[in-house]
Specification:
By secondary structure, this protein is an alpha+beta fold. Among the domains are: 332 residues, 3-Layer(aba) Sandwich (Rossmann fold), CATH 3.40.50; 148 residues, 6 Propeller (Neuraminidase). It has nine helices and 39 strands. The two termini are 38 Å apart. 55% of the residues are buried.
Length: 692
């Protein structure tokens, strides 16, 4: 492993483990092999099992890449003359070769194909002529490049996931596999300055470097997709949890959870976590095959160690990450205007779920195993309409009124309204908001109130029904509470459902289609006549949302915080001991510190006090009255209305008060007072903030 610090210390490549198995048959006459969708003439293709696993050959029917897409390979250097790579090597269009002049004034003389930052020259290739070279280090960069974009169907060696791209060779490692963070930072800056679309980083190390994180942010802000290997545990072959000990650069995401890097773990031929692969909720976004991977090799006829063009039988996350890069090339070739964020969104969202094959690592291998075909066939749902973008708040009716949802603009004016259920139903609506289909846009999840079936209906911000299902037995008429959050840490939101009344509160977890993921999570051990309150959020910074519930009316005031295993993380009373009214709950990171706060209010026949706590029950705010001289309780929720990563609180009175919706900032200062139905109009509603 390596350690980043202010001094330039060594980086050791630890993402590739070599079991060398050269394919001597590579020199035989070409034979056509058919892998899934497209027949190829490459002799080594039959040794690239992973291409079929990720459905790359089927994706090649859609596209094989584009020579306009530039990929910076920060590594040990690429064999620029390799027959499978030379047509895909980047050439600096503004540099005249070998004239000893910095023609493009970028600070690098004759940087035709990239730069050697280790030796500070324009030859970004391995150099095995140096003493004490390490064979795996010499081959590393070339193997990575071959996985990304070895030319396909040329009757020679193997094929890359993409067949066309331009590979910018940025050598930062010496021929023993050592480097430092300063060289990596310089290479990233070079990639930014010279037009890279994607950066591959198949290396990891221990130790946080703020300057490297800043450089990664600069690359992300420049629109570059950054892909990094999760790493292999160097102490024993059982991988390591990145949640326990972070490695870099894969864990160099933003301080508030911004996803700047696509982190890649390794799986084997059976889609099980490769025994060496690191894993974790926060740093890993996706997985790809990482065992028995054959690729391009550095070739030098004068050296017995480097006679082969292809082979390696590599294992490691080093060869997993470039598969994701290859997929990104294909995706960008089809959609040149996709941003780095959109590329991430599609790649993560189209992966095959492998949780059932990895029960000990649920949510720790990202969204699943890369599926290139699904990625190239996926389409981002069209951007929100201008009217949808204006939508800042949502209101839902309570029991006694028609089951309506109102969508408001920033001023509180009603943009549109729709029925969540049949107009005759007057049991109220339980609402939750969140992106539940990974399309980058907020959906409205509605559960029928008491007297209705356990019907869950999901709408877009235009009020159009997208999905629906029953969370419990259809004959049940207790209604259903809903919440939305990433329960398993796979960076996809799930729907949490709980019976709304006359039941022992237990939670079920569903995907958008109503497929149950988990059942019978006990929240309260008692049977209740009335409905609890429900919210979810990551209250302990473990990368997963916890279930937070408030006791119903008739029960002593209580807040419980539960994880998906049913373990109690917090259990406290937010109000005076003798309060037996319902406790309303909201969850939100009010101060952008990564810890979501528990926000509470009294629901009925009491004051409008709001108090905030940690999930363990430590009081953060002694409380304030949202509505003066008002004794009927309030509803509340939390969301980030202006995308500044700081959540606000939104409140609505419970009746016998004009419908004044109030919005409060992190300091509990009033920032908006809205009258969506006009002043002196009394409607009993709940209010929500649209978070983007």
């Amino acid at each position: 492993m390596f350690h980043f610090n202010k001094k330039l210390s060594a980086i050791i490549i630890v993402c590739l483990i070599l079991t060398f198995f050269p394919l001597s048959s590579i020199k035989a006459s070409p034979v056509n092999f058919h892998i899934a969708g497209l027949a190829v003439s490459d002799i080594g293709a039959q040794e690239q099992w992973y291409l079929d696993k990720i459905q790359a050959p089927d994706a090649w029917l859609e596209t094989r890449g584009s020579g306009s897409i530039v990929v910076a390979v920060i590594d040990t250097g690429i064999d620029l003359d390799h027959p499978d790579l030379r047509s895909n090597i980047w050439k600096n269009p503004a540099e005249i070769p070998d004239n000893n002049i910095d023609d493009d004034n970028n600070g690098f003389i004759d940087d035709v194909h990239g730069w050697n930052f280790m030796d500070d020259n324009n030859n970004p290739q391995p150099n095995p002529q140096k003493k004490e070279h390490v064979k795996i280090a010499i081959n590393h960069g070339t193997a990575v490049a071959g996985v990304i974009a070895a030319q396909g169907n040329n009757a020679f060696a193997g094929a890359g996931v993409a067949w066309q791209a331009k590979l910018m060779s940025l050598k930062v490692f010496n021929d023993q596999g050592d480097s430092d963070s300063f060289l990596v930072e310089r290479a990233i800056q070079y990639a930014i300055d010279n037009g890279a679309d994607i950066i591959n980083m198949s290396f990891v190390g221990l130790g946080y470097a703020s300057s490297l994180q800043a450089k990664i942010k600069a690359a992300y802000d420049a629109g570059i997709l950054l892909v990094a290997a999760a790493g292999n545990d160097s102490t024993h072959e059982n991988g390591a949890s990145l949640d326990m000990v972070e490695s870099f650069p894969v864990c160099h995401d933003g301080p508030s959870g911004e996803n700047w890097i696509l982190g890649v773990a390794a799986v084997d031929e059976n889609d099980k976590r490769a025994e060496f692969s690191n894993y974790g909720h926060s740093c890993v976004d996706i997985s790809a095959p990482g065992t028995n991977i054959n690729s391009s090799l550095f070739h030098d006829n004068s050296d017995d160690d480097f006679h082969e063009y292809f082979g390696g039988n590599f294992k490691g996350t080093s060869v997993s990450a470039p598969q994701v890069v290859g997929a990104a090339i294909l995706l960008k070739a089809l959609h040149p205007n996709y941003t780095n964020k959109e590329l991430m969104q599609v790649l993560i969202g189209s992966a095959d779920n492998i949780d059932s094959l990895n029960p000990s690592y649920v949510g720790k291998l990202g969204s699943g195993r890369l599926n290139v075909l699904k990625a190239v066939q996926s389409k981002l749902i069209s951007k929100e309409t201008e009217e949808e973008l204006k939508t800042k708040y949502a209101l839902s009716s309570k029991a006694g009124d028609e089951p309506k949802v109102w969508l408001l603009d920033a001023k509180g004016d009603v943009l549109r309204e729709f029925y969540a259920f049949a107009p005759a139903f007057k049991g109220g609506i339980n609402l939750a908001l969140g992106d539940i289909d990974n399309d980058g846009m907020t959906e409205i999840v509605a559960g029928a109130g008491f007297g209705g079936g356990p019907h869950v209906r999901i709408f877009n911000l235009s009020g159009e029904l997208e999905y629906q299902f029953f969370a419990f037995d259809e004959s049940n008429r207790n209604g259903v509470l809903v919440a939305v959050g990433d329960i398993d840490g796979d960076k996809k939101n799930e729907i949490i459902a709980v019976e709304a009344g006359k039941a022992k509160p237990t939670a079920r977890i569903f995907d958008k289609n109503g497929v149950m993921i988990k059942d019978d999570i006990e929240i309260f051990e008692n049977y209740f006549q009335n409905s609890i309150s429900l919210s979810v959020g990551d209250v302990n910074r473990d990368g997963r949302a916890e279930i937070v519930a408030g006791a119903p009316i008739g029960a002593r005031a209580q807040v419980k915080v539960i994880d998906t295993a049913g373990d109690i993380l917090g259990n406290f009373s937010p109000f005076e001991y003798n309060f037996y009214g319902k406790v309303n709950i909201a969850i939100g990171d009010l101060n952008n510190d990564g810890w979501s706060e528990v926000i509470t209010s009294k629901d009925s026949y009491s004051d409008s006090k709001i108090r905030t706590f940690t999930y363990e029950g430590r009081l953060l705010s002694p409380g304030f009255l949202a509505y003066e001289n008002y004794g009927y309780g309030i509803s509340l929720s939390s969301g980030d209305r202006n995308s500044d990563k700081e959540y606000e609180i939104i409140t609505a009175p419970n009746g016998k008060h004009e419908t004044e919706i109030k919005v409060w900032d992190k300091n509990l200062n009033l920032t908006a007072s809205l009258f969506p139905f006009g002043k002196n109009v009394y409607k009993n509603v709940s209010a929500y903030i649209i978070t983007r």
